[in-house]
Amino acid sequence: MENFEPKIVAFVCNWCTYAGADLTGTSRIKYSANVKIIRFPCTGRIDFMLLLKAFANGADGIMVSGCHPNDCHYTSGNFHARRRWIVFRTLLDFLGIDTKRIVFSWVSAAEGVKWAEMVNNTVSEIIKLGPYKEYQEIAKEYLQNNEEDGNE
Amino acid sequence: MNKLQTLAGELLDNKEVSLIIGYQKGANNKTRAAFISTSEDSKNLIFDDTCKQNLAVYLSKKEINKFGKIAIVCQQTTLKSIIVLTSEYQLSENIFAIILDKENNWQCLKTVEEISNFSESNSQTNSTSLELIEKMTLEERWNYWQDQFSKCFKCYACRAACPLCYCDRCTVENNQPQWISIPSSKVGNLEWHIMRAMHLAGRCINCNACAEACPQGIPLNILTQKLTNDIFNDFKYTPGKSSTQTNVLSTFDVKDKENFIK
Predict the structure, then answer these.
(1) How do strand A35-40 and strand A102-106 relate by DSSP bridges?
(2) Which residue of A41, B179, B243, B250 is 20 to 30 Å from B114, comparing CA positions?
């Protein structure tokens, strides 16, 4: 598909990756504009339902990123999150959802360059996979209802 | 009076318990749950192959808890349900478990330790349908489950039948925000089944009550079976093994695998 601009939603933690992405900006590193960043207090707060909502609202790919192990602002939020992701990925794969569309990473507040690379790599990976037609197809009804209700 | 009925009658007469949950014959010759509070009524108790329901589902209900001390007619899966409910602090009192042992005698297990000792551990459940789905390609799996979930009309019988789905207020009843659409819809059905499986991950003891209850015959027990198997492989954790273990997703190991994290 030509000129396909993937929509990517990034769920990031406030203390590491969000600050890292900020550093990317202040360092004036250019990176792909396909990503929409949502800031969370901690990766431990990122409920799997939120990732599903991103897909339902038309995301082609999802990034989830937080502090490196042992760097969590709340000591262990990222460890708990990691365990949840392991189980969640198993389930998604079993249901036939391509786990290549969800990229997990650790990006610290000092890794502005890594963040830019992560986004660019994810974008090119999702371009290869194409739009997430299967999920968008089943979510059509949901999106229409939401528009009628005037919700975002 | 058979041995089960005698045992139940004695427990009630000696005031050891004030309620016995078991099985009895209901309308149309079907088996239903029995709630027995007098020794005369204990003659209604039956136990045979038609007794499939996991009776532990009643243990966390307020109207049942009012009775105080409860005895419950158990299968192996019921024992495991009691262990998980105990480990999650959902039982206010010790539950007496009435169960058939290998010599075909009825036993009354009076503490959770006895129940744990009596419970047979089986960490992995291998069903042929689970293996079949695992062998499918990603696309085939997607089509298979979409086909299955399209039958779901959100009656939530799976939730009602599950002894571990005990929340007073479930996410699907929450409408600020509305997480999952109320009527049956493709994306809503998928989200419901993902959510149900995730909330039972590392807790489901494979009693298959959900699939038994499903009026549409969706094999949703396979989802939680798959998670139980994978959780055992990844974390060596078996739900219902002990009443003192912490839920697998409430804890972590620094050495958990992270080969998928960039």
Answers:
(1) unpaired
(2) B250
